[in-house]
Write a structure and sequence with these properties.
Elements (H helix, E strand, L loop, with lengths): L1 E7 L6 H9 L4 E6 L6 E7 L2 H14 L21
Antiparallel strand pairs: 1-3, 2-3
């Protein structure tokens, strides 16, 4: 079993929807709200390093509420939560 930790940013004013979408992803074990540059602290669990990498990629690709990099212009949120 491999444990991973990551911090992510959420599109402003969509923290709750982003949190709810992340909760539904298998492998996301715990989510904590943060104050500061990042919005959420995730604890992830996977069978091995390769599966952990796949889980991180799934989070990046499927969660439209995430902002990416240090850009000050986040992506536009979707009309509904992608699950």
């Amino acid at each position: 079993m491999v444990i991973g930790i990551t911090m992510i940013k959420i599109v402003p004013d969509h923290e709750k929807a982003g949190y709810d979408a992340l909760r539904e992803i298998e492998g996301v074990k715990e989510i904590y709200h943060l104050f500061g540059e990042f919005d959420l602290f995730l604890i992830l669990e996977a069978l091995d390093r390769a599966k952990l990498d796949q889980l991180l990629e799934e989070i990046r690709i499927h969660d439209a509420y995430l902002t990416h990099g240090r850009s000050s212009s986040p992506r536009k949120p979707p009309e509904s939560i992608p699950i």
